[in-house]
C-alpha cells in the first residue's frame, strides 16, 4: 500500500527543506569574489554573531513556524479528508499575486514599526541586524517573536486571504522562501531572474542592513511599492569595486 503524505504536511515541511537547500547552494557559490556585494573579510569584522549561532537561531524560528503551520492547517482542514480540487491556472496566478501583496503589506508595516519602536528594535529586531553583511542562510535569523509576527503570521494571512489550497501553498511558500534567501545571499549574479523581475533584490535589501539605510527600504520580500508610497525608498547604484565584486551605494535623496 502506497504511503501518502498530505498537502498540509508538504506545505509545512517543504519550504523548510527548500530554505536549507537553496541557501546551501549559495554558500557553495560564496567564493565568487567578483559577484559579492561585500569583500569576504567584512563578514568577520562587521557581523557580531557566529554562523553556528545563526544556524541555531534559524532552526528555533523554523520550529515555531512548523508548529503554527500545522495548527493553521488543522483549523482550516476539511474533516472529510478529501483533498480540495485545484482551481484553474489563472485563479492560482491571481491567488499568488494576492498572497504576495498581503505578505508585503503585513511585513512592511510590522518591519517598519520594529524600527520605529526603540524597545522592539533593541530587544527584538536588532538580532536580525547583527548581520550587517547578510548571507543566505541568515535570512531567517530573527528573534523568535519577530519570526512569529513577521513571517509566520504574515504567511498565515497570505494563505487565508488569498484562499489558496494547501497544495498551492506548497509552491507559494517555497517561492517566498527562495525569494527571501535570495535577498540575503550577498551576491549579485548575472542572469539572476529575481533581479530582472523584482526591484526588491539582494542589493536593495543590503542597503537596509547598513547603518545609513536603517530607516529605509523596509519592503520585503517582493515589491518596493510601500517604500515608494510612504517615502522610505532609498535608491542605489551598483558600483564595481576595484578589488572585485560590487557595492550597492545609496543615491542621495533630494
Automatic annotation (TrEMBL):
Stretches that traverse the bilayer: 12-32, 53-76, 88-109
Instruction: Tell me which EC number(s) this protein carries.
Output: 4.1.99.5
| Domain Fatty acid hydroxylase intervals | 96-232
Enumerate the Gene Ontology biological process terms: lipid biosynthetic process
Main location (coarse class)? endoplasmic reticulum
This chain belongs to the protein called aldehyde oxygenase (deformylating)
Q: How does it sit in the membrane?
A: Multi-pass membrane protein
Task: Report the sequence similarity comment from the record.
Answer: Belongs to the sterol desaturase family.
**Which top-level group of life is the source organism from?**
Eukaryota
Which Gene Ontology CC terms are recorded? Answer: endoplasmic reticulum membrane
Q: Name one Pfam family in it.
A: FA_hydroxylase
Q: Where does the record say this protein resides? A: Endoplasmic reticulum membrane
Keyword terms, alphabetized: Endoplasmic reticulum, Lyase, Membrane, Transmembrane, Transmembrane helix
Recorded hits in InterPro entries, A to Z, give: Fatty_acid_hydroxylase, Sterol_Desaturase_Related
Q: Which reaction does it catalyse?
A: a long-chain fatty aldehyde + 2 NADPH + O2 + H(+) = a long-chain alkane + formate + 2 NADP(+) + H2O
Amino acid at each position: 500500500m502506497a504511503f501518502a503524505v498530505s498537502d498540509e504536511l508538504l506545505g509545512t515541511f517543504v519550504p523548510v527543506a527548500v530554505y536549507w537547500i537553496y541557501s546551501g547552494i549559495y554558500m557553495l557559490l560564496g567564493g565568487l569574489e567578483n559577484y559579492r556585494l561585500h569583500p569576504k573579510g567584512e563578514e568577520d569584522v562587521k557581523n557580531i554573531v557566529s554562523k553556528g549561532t545563526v544556524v541555531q537561531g534559524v532552526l528555533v524560528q523554523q520550529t515555531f513556524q512548523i508548529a503554527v503551520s500545522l495548527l493553521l492547517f488543522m483549523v482550516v482542514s476539511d474533516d472529510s479528508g478529501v483533498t480540495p480540487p485545484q482551481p484553474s491556472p489563472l485563479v492560482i496566478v491571481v491567488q499568488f499575486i494576492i498572497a504576495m501583496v498581503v505578505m508585503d503589506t503585513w511585513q512592511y508595516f510590522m518591519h517598519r514599526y520594529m524600527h520605529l519602536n526603540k524597545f522592539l528594535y533593541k530587544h527584538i529586531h536588532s538580532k536580525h541586524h547583527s548581520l550587517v553583511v547578510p548571507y543566505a542562510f541568515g535570512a531567517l535569523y530573527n528573534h523568535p517573536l519577530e519570526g512569529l509576527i513577521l513571517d509566520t503570521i504574515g504567511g498565515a494571512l497570505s494563505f487565508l486571504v488569498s484562499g489558496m489550497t494547501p497544495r498551492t501553498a506548497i509552491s507559494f511558500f517555497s517561492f517566498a522562501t527562495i525569494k527571501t534567501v535570495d535577498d540575503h545571499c550577498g551576491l549579485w549574479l548575472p542572469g539572476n531572474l529575481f533581479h530582472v523581475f523584482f526591484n526588491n533584490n539582494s542589493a536593495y535589501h543590503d542597503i537596509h542592513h547598513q547603518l545609513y539605510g536603517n530607516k529605509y527600504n523596509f519592503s520585503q520580500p517582493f515589491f518596493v511599492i510601500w517604500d515608494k508610497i510612504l517615502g522610505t525608498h532609498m535608491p542605489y547604484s551598483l558600483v564595481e569595486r576595484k578589488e572585485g565584486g560590487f557595492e550597492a551605494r545609496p543615491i542621495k535623496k533630494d
